[in-house]
Specification:
1 helix; three-stranded mixed β-sheet; globular; mainly beta; single chain
């Protein structure tokens, strides 16, 4: 998962039938870096996760909100940028070095899959919890 260096902070301007998504990210290491959260459409790579927010890692759980989102099929990707470079640090084999998580707990046992992380967003909206996990011990 490679989220953009600077996630688009803007929100979707949707049609009359729009919903909201409330995301609570748990397992944050307070005081270290920023937490990035993205709403993904059609896949989990950077090109599909253009709607996002970030906040300082100030508490063990942080809330994020997206409004005016058209109903449809989405997934949520999140990570904590411990080293401050704006990207999810990875090993040469592609394993995440920083805490990460996906909706529905997808990606805990291997490479994440959009269909496993996907949820259907309908009016008036959805509330999700994402738990960050550390795939590898900190260096």
């Amino acid at each position: 998962m490679r989220l953009p260096v600077l996630l688009v902070a803007g929100l979707l301007a949707g049609p009359a039938g729009a919903a909201s998504v409330r995301v609570t990210v748990e397992g944050v290491q307070p005081g270290t870096g920023r937490v990035f959260v993205a709403l993904c459409v059609g896949g989990l790579s950077e090109q599909f996760c253009r709607i996002g927010e970030s906040a300082p890692a100030s508490a063990p759980a942080l809330g994020f909100g997206f409004s005016d989102v058209p109903p449809g099929l989405y997934a949520v990707a999140a990570y904590q940028d411990l080293d401050g470079d704006g990207r999810l640090a990875r090993t040469p084999l592609g394993l995440p070095r920083e805490p990460y998580g996906f909706s529905n707990g997808a990606g805990r046992g291997g490479r994440p899959d959009f269909s496993a992380a996907a949820f259907t967003l309908a009016e008036p909206g959805a509330s999700l919890r994402i738990r960050l996990i550390q795939a590898l011990p900190p260096r």
